[in-house]
Design a protein that fits this description.
The protein is an alpha+beta fold. The protein folds into two domains: 120 residues, Aminotransferase class 4, branched-chain amino acid transferase, N-terminal domain (D-amino Acid Aminotransferase, Chain A, domain 1), CATH 3.30.470.10; 156 residues, Alpha-Beta Barrel (D-amino Acid Aminotransferase, Chain A, domain 2), CATH 3.20.10.10. The strands form two sheets. Strands 7, 8, 9, 10, 11, 12, 13, 14 and 15 form a nine-stranded mixed β-sheet that branches. Strands 2-1-6-5-3-4 form a six-stranded antiparallel β-sheet. Strand 1 and strand 2 form a beta hairpin. The structure holds N-(5'-phosphopyridoxyl)-D-alanine. N-(5'-phosphopyridoxyl)-D-alanine binds next to helix 6 and strand 13. The site of N-(5'-phosphopyridoxyl)-D-alanine has 14 residues, from helix 6 and strand 13.
Length: 284
């Protein structure tokens, strides 16, 4: 079935939607993106994603082609036109089309594209009941991972390395410490304490991370924001990752080392429940 997508002010059937071959997103990965989940036809944490988008654009000196209000309306139109109950909305803004030149062009209109991915039962992913296996890989990405750019080749290579190794995903390691997962933030739990790397240019400032840490603190759980080593992770009681598409996903194996009894831990399981309950309540 053909989806309706949004391109530069128009809602079009996906076959008719086109972007220029000169688009800087295509030529230079000169663009940023957001992924927002939809549960029961409503957007999860739209405000958080809109705020981070504004920050990514500003860090790259790019203008926003639409206001936050217009962006919300586009998201809602796409949910309704594509009859999305559970799924994701992908949004990408690039600097636009200009003759190829490393310098930013002066007066180019940004390109904005949004499309939906229907994922029935997104919140009931069986992987959350079994937990996922991760391998560790050296973090060879650039140094501004706090900007959500479309330069995703290295994370893609790492996901393939994980797949070849029979694992589900990879955790990236820099100077001996875990930065984050290929497309998620990484956490360990030791003696009841939730440990996750502090915010900096080294990691993406996850919207799910912010919500989960807030819910953890509200539930009187202890949170420590600091970097941890892969050895510490292998020795942890439990581990998990967070992202807009996976919510809270338990990790049960790291580089072949089984955590606890090899089943999703109590903290990750509880946080997933709280996150889904609370997010559904505030979804718009
Ligand atoms: N990925 N770290 C990285 C490198 C990510 O790509 C993502 C999100 C996260 C989690 O951020 P959030 O909680 O805001 O989704 C952390 C998205 C889901 C993706 O690329 O599909």
């Amino acid at each position: 079935m053909s989806r309706t997508v949004y391109v530069n002010g128009e809602y079009l059937p996906e076959e008719e939607a086109k972007v220029s071959v000169f688009d800087r997103g295509f030529l230079f990965a000169d663009g940023v993106y957001e992924v927002t989940s939809v549960l029961g036809g409503k957007l999860i944490d739209f405000g958080g994603h809109a705020k981070r988008l504004a920050r990514s654009l500003s860090e790259l000196e790019m203008d926003a082609p639409v206001t936050e209000e217009e962006l919300l309306e586009i998201h809602r139109q796409l949910v309704s036109r594509n009859d999305i109950d559970d799924g994701l909305i992908y949004l990408q803004i690039t600097r636009g089309a200009a003759d190829r030149d490393f310098h930013y062009p002066a007066d180019t209109a940004p390109t904005i594209v949004l499309f939906t991915q229907s994922k029935p039962g997104l919140a009931d992913n069986p992987a959350a009941k079994a937990g996922i296996k991760v391998i560790s890989v050296e973090d060879q990405r650039w140094g501004r991972r706090d900007i959500k750019t479309v330069q995703l080749l290295y994370p893609s290579m790492c996901k393939m390395a994980a797949k070849k190794a029979g694992a589900d995903d990879a955790w990236l390691v820099e100077e001996g410490k875990v930065t984050e997962g290929t497309s998620n933030n990484a956490y360990i739990v030791k003696d009841g304490k939730i440990i996750t790397r502090e915010l900096s240019h080294d990691i993406l400032h996850g919207i799910t991370r912010a919500a989960v840490l807030r819910f953890a603190q509200e539930a009187q759980m202890v949170v420590e924001e600091r970097a941890f080593t892969i050895d510490e992770a292998k020795d942890a009681d439990e581990a998990f990752v967070t992202s807009a598409s996976a919510f809270v996903m338990p990790v049960v194996e790291i580089d072949g080392a089984v955590l606890g009894d090899g089943k999703p831990g109590a903290v990750a399981t509880r946080l997933r429940e709280i996150y889904l309950d609370e997010s559904r309540k505030t979804a718009i």
